[in-house]
Amino acid sequence: MSCALTVIGHVRGGTVSTETPPPEGRTAEPDWETVQASPEFQALRSRLRRFVFPVAAGFLLWYLLYVLLASYAPSFMAIPVWGAINLGLILGLLQFVSTFAITTWYVRWADKKFDPHATAIREEIERGRL
Fold it and tell me: Which of 16, 42, 85, 97 has its CA 20 to 30 A from that of 113?
């Protein structure tokens, strides 16, 4: 009984690759330094930083406030709010709530403002124009 092996793909340097070769006039790997220096990529990076840095700074300040209050104002954090629930517990739980809120905010922001531009840049790279 004989078995025939059919390989679909291109042979390069003795190895089998299932990738199609790049179009004429285009190298297989983009010049990432050129991509990074492009105005489109710079605008994308700037857009991301304008969102991420202020939001991260705000959250870190909020967290630092919580830690400082817990360390230096225990009587303030111990103020009863409802039964055995005090202000410290509520502020601690709000840390989790704010984390999920920021995550939701970022995902919605990225879907509208960031991802379309990132997709356009990726498509330009894939076409060999960038």
Answer: 97
* Residues near 95 by beta carbon (within 8 Å), at least 6 away in sequence: 62, 63, 66
Cα separation, 110 vs 51, whole angstroms: 10
| Residues shown for the chain | 130
CA 35 to chain centre: 18
pLDDT tops 70 at residue 74: yes
Instruction: In whole angstroms, give the CA distance from residue 129 to residue 122.
Output: 10
Q: For residue 62, what pLDDT band results from cuts at 50, 70 and 90?
A: very high
DSSP 80-129: EEETTEEHHHHHHHHHHHHHHHHHHHHHHHIIIIIHHHHHHHHHHHHHT-
Q: How many Cβ atoms sit within 10 Å of the Cβ of residue 8?
A: 6
